[in-house]
TrEMBL record:
<dbReference type="Pfam" id="PF00270">
    <property type="entry name" value="DEAD"/>
</dbReference>
<keyword id="KW-0547">Nucleotide-binding</keyword>
<feature type="domain" description="DEAD-box RNA helicase Q">
    <location>
        <begin position="13"/>
        <end position="41"/>
    </location>
</feature>
<dbReference type="GO" id="GO:0042255">
    <property type="term" value="P:ribosome assembly"/>
</dbReference>
<dbReference type="GO" id="GO:0003724">
    <property type="term" value="F:RNA helicase activity"/>
</dbReference>
<dbReference type="Pfam" id="PF00271">
    <property type="entry name" value="Helicase_C"/>
</dbReference>
<dbReference type="GO" id="GO:0005524">
    <property type="term" value="F:ATP binding"/>
</dbReference>
<comment type="similarity">
    <text>Belongs to the DEAD box helicase family.</text>
</comment>
<feature type="domain" description="Helicase ATP-binding">
    <location>
        <begin position="44"/>
        <end position="213"/>
    </location>
</feature>
<keyword id="KW-0378">Hydrolase</keyword>
<dbReference type="GO" id="GO:0003676">
    <property type="term" value="F:nucleic acid binding"/>
</dbReference>
<dbReference type="InterPro" id="IPR014014">
    <property type="entry name" value="RNA_helicase_DEAD_Q_motif"/>
</dbReference>
<keyword id="KW-0963">Cytoplasm</keyword>
<keyword id="KW-0347">Helicase</keyword>
<keyword id="KW-0067">ATP-binding</keyword>
<dbReference type="GO" id="GO:0009266">
    <property type="term" value="P:response to temperature stimulus"/>
</dbReference>
<dbReference type="InterPro" id="IPR027417">
    <property type="entry name" value="P-loop_NTPase"/>
</dbReference>
């Protein structure tokens, strides 16, 4: 039987009121927390009491600290792993590990992060240093357990973080098998952004009289994020992304893709065009993944092309733009993706490419999130970029004889116009838009005829 905790999205208590000790409060002050978030206010006292918890809260609500702070306070320093935190991805495991290190600094909390792609021998050496908290991904953890590498492994508290993501990634069978190796009296904390039926079934199996906490977001999407969509044809996606990158004043951008193959293909396409991009997906070696993240964080590259799963848990600041190469498969994915921008009070832009066939699904998604996306038009290759490109081109000696032949038939100005027309037609660009100085403002609805949008022409970058 679950004991519900009444939802209250207005925190009224201080961290001191929640029963945290002076060492924990010191670490909280050092990381800059001033007041507990709703999930922290509700979860911390319950976890401190040793009760099982099933908590539903969106990403970015402070749920890591909600379970980490009471866990750190309850550690006994008995030279064994006292707390186990299971996360769906390596990146999220590393992020949780970093946060626990910061929050447990004053308490001298020892952690270990265990995930695939690392040396097993190195992980075993680190285990000999008696970490108190283990953060692990399901696959590598299960491998250690099956091969009996974890001595005296009996954690008193176990956390399942981002449980719905573990479901999406097919880890639920692994999770159930992992629990066969864990103490039956361990305190279990299950955190999830959504509660699909399989997660509820898992909770019924592993939790004992849990306290149920549900924190509904006050706003499903951030008001600081400008949400736009662009109607295109399927084959125009790469060209559309390229033109948007040219036209938008972006500093750091993340382009979300559905498949790993698409990540590599778009990375190769944009890199060949001179854009500074880096890929991120699950088939990459761990060293390559970390190199991509480091390059993006340090601004060596300004475009990260990633799948949802690989990007889960990334903590990257100052992302100005998020691009959805396809319409996300579900509302939760859309909310998670665009939440990468518009953080810490800064403005952000979320751009989604949509084909006419996807428009009904876009309408449904807008209804789910409670906000509308504005229709914009794909920009063209503008005059400035064309002039810059021409300035960089050196005249080929072989072209001189061709030029002499052509000028016998055409006036030079006529020849230039014909060649430009030929070039732009081959790239499906409507030249009428290039020289159109003014455009009326404000298109917010899908234009009539968009469902049969077959011209293949990109429109002017100015909003219609």
């Amino acid at each position: 039987m679950q004991t519900p905790v009444e939802e209250n999205t207005q925190p009224t208590k201080s961290f001191k009121d929640l029963g945290l000790n002076s060492k924990i409060l010191k670490s909280i002050a050092e990381v800059g927390f001033t007041q507990p978030s709703p999930i922290q206010e509700k979860a911390i006292p319950v976890v401190l009491e040793g009760k099982d918890v099933i908590a539903q809260a969106q990403t970015g609500t402070g749920k890591t600290a909600a379970f980490a702070l009471p866990i750190i306070q309850n550690l006994q320093n008995n030279k064994s792993v006292e707390a186990l935190i299971i996360t769906p991805t390596r990146e999220l495991a590393m992020q949780v590990s970093d946060e626990i290190f910061k929050l447990g600094k004053s308490s001298r909390t020892r952690t270990i992060c265990v995930y695939g792609g690392q040396s097993i021998r190195k992980q075993c050496e680190l285990l000999e240093r008696h970490p108190q908290v283990m953060i692990a991904t399901p696959g590598r953890l299960l491998d250690h357990l099956k091969n009996k590498r974890l001595k005296r492994f009996a954690p008193k508290v176990v956390v399942l973080d981002e449980s719905d993501e573990m479901l999406d990634m097919g880890f639920l069978d692994d999770i159930e098998e992992i629990f066969d190796y864990l103490p039956q009296d361990a305190q279990i904390l299950l955190f999830s952004a959504t509660m699909p039926p399989p997660i509820k079934e898992l909770a019924n199996k592993i939790l004992q009289n849990p306290v149920s906490i549900h924190i509904a977001p006050t706003h499903v999407t951030n008001a600081d994020i400008s949400q736009r969509f662009y109607v295109i044809n399927e084959h125009e996606r790469n060209e559309a992304i390229m033109r948007l990158l040219d036209k938008e004043n972006h500093t750091k951008s993340i382009i979300f893709m559905r498949m790993k193959r698409e990540v590599d293909e778009l990375h190769q396409f944009l890199s060949a065009k001179g854009y500074k991009t880096t890929p991120l997906h699950g088939d990459m070696e761990q060293r390559a993944r970390q190199a991509s993240i480091k390059a993006f964080k340090s601004k060596e590259v300004d475009v990260l092309i990633a799948t949802d799963v690989a990007s889960r848990g990334l903590d990257i600041s100052d992302v100005s733009h998020v691009f959805n190469y396809h319409l996300p498969l579900n509302t939760e994915s859309y909310i998670h993706r665009i939440g990468r921008t518009g953080r810490a009070g800064k403005k952000g832009v979320a751009i989604t490419l949509v084909t006419p066939l996807e428009y009904k699904e876009l309408q449904r998604m807008q209804k789910d999130i409670g906000s509308s996306l504005e229709l914009y038009e794909i920009p063209h290759m503008d005059e400035d970029r064309l002039v810059q490109a021409l300035c960089k081109v050196e005249v080929d000696a072989e072209v001189v004889s061709l030029y002499e032949q052509l000028t016998e038939q055409f006036e030079p100005s006529q020849l230039v116009l014909k060649l430009l027309s030929l070039q732009f037609k081959s790239h499906k660009v409507d030249l009428n838009h290039i020289f159109n100085a003014q455009k009326p403002a404000g298109v917010k609805k899908l234009p009539r005829g968009a469902r049969s949008h077959r011209s293949g022409h990109f429109k002017d970058s100015r909003r219609k």
